[in-house]
């Protein structure tokens, strides 16, 4: 009896070993590729802003979880609301998994609008084909205003002008307040052309402008951690369809509740859906599947890294990661939005001074 059992056990063991060989081979292949190489994270925003801060945090920790442990560096390629960097990744950069993009999440809606143009498309890349690696957190955008300014609540902005700083078209600081004017009847006047949120917050300090919209809550806490506690600014409204638990406790209302029609609320919800992408990392569609899987796994492992979490806590960055698979599925749903709603949303995001 004993002699009969042993061969069967050995046979089963051999089956398990052989079954694991393809996975092990794939891991070895990925490690062999990345060993001694350099991975570049290309940030589509200027240095010092929220997207840059998150990308550099990822860059400092993800390398130890990528098979082969490549060196990871971060560079900035701002322009066209992150679309310049995405065009670089899509058309120019190596498509082998050594270049990762860290665009603004508004690039998703930009791509959605561009998709409707057919042969007249303006973007030099197809964002529907980009591979989602993951995001460090879901974003929650807000409008903030100086406490000594005339706008104390969002209702005030419905009856008097709210002077804010803004960046270029295609960014949340410019497009979100433009949409608020259209969908809620607010009277937000923009002073545009600032490179990013770092420069706009400086303008608020100098009283050049009264506030800022389309500003990430996590970026506010990271860049200006004392603004809330000191009472220098107040949060006027949440630009999100559900709100942030911490901000909800402050009694700050949701912008969607001020929509002047059910259709306008749908427009706002579509735009705010891109906030789920938070601080996205993407790569080119041609990257081999085994390297994509390795990068996605490494990203999520890095998000659990004790050193990363400690650093994030120290600089007041929220970490609530979303996997690349989840983001890929969400992107597919967004890009499947009916054409008529997309067109109305695009029109709503065109800024018209009050």
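Q: What amino acid sequence fits the structure above?
A:
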């Amino acid at each position: 009896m004993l002699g009969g059992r042993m061969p069967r056990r050995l046979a089963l063991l051999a089956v398990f070993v052989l079954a694991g060989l393809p996975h092990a081979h794939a891991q070895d292949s990925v490690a062999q590729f990345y060993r001694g190489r350099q991975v570049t994270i290309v940030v589509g925003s200027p240095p010092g802003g929220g997207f840059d801060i998150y990308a550099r945090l990822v860059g400092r920790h993800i390398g130890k979880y990528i098979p082969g442990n490549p060196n990871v560096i971060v560079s900035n390629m701002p322009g066209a609301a992150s679309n310049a960097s995405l065009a670089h990744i899509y058309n120019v950069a190596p498509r082998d998994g050594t270049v990762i993009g860290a665009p603004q999440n508004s690039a998703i809606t930009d791509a959605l609008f561009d998709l409707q143009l057919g042969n007249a498309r303006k973007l030099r890349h197809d964002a529907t084909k980009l591979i989602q690696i993951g995001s460090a957190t879901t974003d929650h955008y807000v409008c903030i205003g100086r406490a000594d300014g005339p706008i104390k609540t969002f209702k005030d902005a419905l009856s008097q002008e709210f002077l804010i700083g803004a960046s270029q078209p295609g960014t949340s600081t410019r497009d979100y307040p433009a949409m608020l004017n259209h969908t809620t009847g607010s009277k937000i006047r923009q002073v545009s052309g600032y490179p990013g949120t770092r420069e706009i917050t400086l303008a608020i300090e100098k009283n050049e402008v009264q506030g800022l919209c389309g500003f990430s809550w996590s970026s506010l806490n990271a860049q200006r951690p004392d603004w809330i506690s000191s009472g220098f600014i107040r949060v006027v409204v949440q630009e999100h369809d559900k709100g942030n638990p911490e901000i909800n406790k402050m009694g700050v209302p949701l912008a969607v509740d001020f929509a002047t029609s059910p259709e306008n609320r749908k427009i706002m919800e579509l735009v705010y859906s891109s906030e789920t992408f938070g601080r996205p990392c993407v790569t080119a569609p041609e990257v081999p599947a085994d390297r994509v899987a390795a990068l996605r796994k490494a990203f999520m492992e890095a998000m659990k890294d004790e050193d990363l979490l400690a650093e994030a806590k120290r600089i007041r960055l929220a970490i609530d990661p979303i996997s690349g698979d989840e983001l890929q599925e969400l992107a597919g749903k967004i890009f499947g939005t009916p054409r008529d709603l997309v067109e109305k949303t695009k029109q709503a995001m065109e800024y018209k001074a009050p």
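Q: And what stands out in the fold?
A: The radius of gyration is 23 Å.
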